[in-house]
Amino acid sequence: MNDGQLIVLPYENGNVSVVKMSRIKVYTFRGSIKGFLFSYDASGVSILEPGNYRDFDSPYSKDVQGKIRKVSLSQLSGYAFYPEVSVLETISPEVS
Questions:
Q1: What's this model's pTM, rounded to 2 decimal places?
Q2: Strand boundaries in 1-96, DSSP class E
Q3: Phi and psi at residue 75, in whole multiples of 5°?
Q4: What is the pLDDT of residues 66-93, one digit of tens each?
Q5: Euclidean distance between the first and the last CA atom of the chain, given in angstroms as a whole number
Q6: CA–CA separation, 38 and 48 (whole Å)
Protein backbone atom coordinates (compact mmCIF):
# COMPACT_ATOMS: atom_id res chain seq x y z
CA MET A 1 0.00 0.00 0.00
CA ASN A 2 3.00 2.28 0.28
CA ASP A 3 3.04 4.20 -3.01
CA GLY A 4 5.86 6.59 -2.08
CA GLN A 5 3.61 9.65 -1.96
CA LEU A 6 4.70 12.25 0.60
CA ILE A 7 2.30 13.88 3.04
CA VAL A 8 3.22 17.18 4.67
CA LEU A 9 2.03 17.77 8.23
CA PRO A 10 2.60 20.67 10.62
CA TYR A 11 5.07 19.76 13.33
CA GLU A 12 6.55 21.90 16.10
CA ASN A 13 7.65 25.18 14.45
CA GLY A 14 7.44 24.00 10.86
CA ASN A 15 6.38 21.02 8.77
CA VAL A 16 7.48 17.43 8.23
CA SER A 17 7.13 15.26 5.16
CA VAL A 18 6.54 11.54 5.61
CA VAL A 19 5.59 8.72 3.28
CA LYS A 20 1.89 7.93 2.94
CA MET A 21 0.88 4.80 4.91
CA SER A 22 3.62 5.30 7.52
CA ARG A 23 2.70 4.06 10.97
CA ILE A 24 1.40 6.86 13.17
CA LYS A 25 -0.19 7.32 16.57
CA VAL A 26 -2.70 10.19 16.65
CA TYR A 27 -3.54 11.76 20.00
CA THR A 28 -7.00 13.18 20.55
CA PHE A 29 -8.57 14.72 23.62
CA ARG A 30 -10.33 11.38 24.21
CA GLY A 31 -7.36 9.07 23.78
CA SER A 32 -5.13 7.83 20.99
CA ILE A 33 -5.54 5.97 17.73
CA LYS A 34 -2.82 4.00 15.99
CA GLY A 35 -2.90 3.34 12.31
CA PHE A 36 -1.38 4.22 8.96
CA LEU A 37 -1.21 7.84 7.76
CA PHE A 38 -3.64 8.21 4.86
CA SER A 39 -3.92 11.98 4.31
CA TYR A 40 -3.76 15.42 5.87
CA ASP A 41 -5.60 18.58 4.87
CA ALA A 42 -6.98 21.76 6.42
CA SER A 43 -9.82 19.82 8.07
CA GLY A 44 -7.67 17.22 9.83
CA VAL A 45 -5.71 14.01 9.56
CA SER A 46 -7.03 10.73 8.14
CA ILE A 47 -5.60 7.39 9.15
CA LEU A 48 -6.31 3.85 8.07
CA GLU A 49 -7.20 2.11 11.30
CA PRO A 50 -6.54 -1.61 10.81
CA GLY A 51 -9.34 -4.06 11.59
CA ASN A 52 -6.69 -6.52 12.78
CA TYR A 53 -3.94 -4.92 14.86
CA ARG A 54 -1.53 -7.71 13.91
CA ASP A 55 -1.32 -5.85 10.59
CA PHE A 56 0.02 -2.90 12.56
CA ASP A 57 3.05 -4.90 13.73
CA SER A 58 4.49 -4.87 10.22
CA PRO A 59 5.56 -1.42 8.99
CA TYR A 60 4.25 -0.50 5.55
CA SER A 61 1.94 -3.53 5.31
CA LYS A 62 0.70 -4.04 1.79
CA ASP A 63 -2.72 -5.59 2.39
CA VAL A 64 -4.06 -3.81 5.45
CA GLN A 65 -7.82 -3.97 5.84
CA GLY A 66 -9.67 -1.48 8.00
CA LYS A 67 -11.51 1.80 7.98
CA ILE A 68 -10.44 5.34 7.25
CA ARG A 69 -10.86 7.47 10.35
CA LYS A 70 -10.76 11.27 10.18
CA VAL A 71 -9.62 13.29 13.20
CA SER A 72 -10.58 16.95 12.87
CA LEU A 73 -8.05 19.61 13.80
CA SER A 74 -10.27 20.72 16.69
CA GLN A 75 -9.92 17.22 18.25
CA LEU A 76 -6.25 16.69 17.38
CA SER A 77 -3.80 17.15 20.25
CA GLY A 78 -0.74 15.70 18.50
CA TYR A 79 0.80 12.71 16.78
CA ALA A 80 3.91 10.57 16.90
CA PHE A 81 5.64 8.43 14.33
CA TYR A 82 7.16 5.00 14.85
CA PRO A 83 10.94 4.44 14.76
CA GLU A 84 11.08 3.10 11.21
CA VAL A 85 9.39 6.22 9.83
CA SER A 86 11.84 8.60 8.21
CA VAL A 87 10.97 12.24 8.65
CA LEU A 88 12.22 13.36 5.28
CA GLU A 89 12.18 17.08 5.72
CA THR A 90 11.65 19.74 8.36
CA ILE A 91 10.88 23.24 7.21
CA SER A 92 10.99 25.91 9.90
CA PRO A 93 9.53 29.36 9.27
CA GLU A 94 11.83 32.38 9.24
CA VAL A 95 12.07 34.05 12.64
CA SER A 96 12.33 37.84 12.40
A1: 0.77
A2: 6-11, 14-19, 23-28, 31-41, 44-50, 66-72, 76-81, 89-91
A3: -100, -5
A4: 899 999 999 999 998 887 776 555 555 5
A5: 42
A6: 6
- Amino acid (one-letter) located at 35: G
Count Cα atoms within 13 angstroms, Cβ side, for 70: 8
Q: Which residue blocks in 4-93 are alpha helix, DSSP H?
A: none
- Number of residues that this document lists for the chain: 96
Is 41 exposed, middle or buried (CB count within 10 Å of its CB: 0-12, 13-18, 19+)? exposed
Q: Which residues pair with 36 in a beta bridge?
A: 23, 48
Alpha-carbon distance of 5 to 96, in angstroms, equals: 33
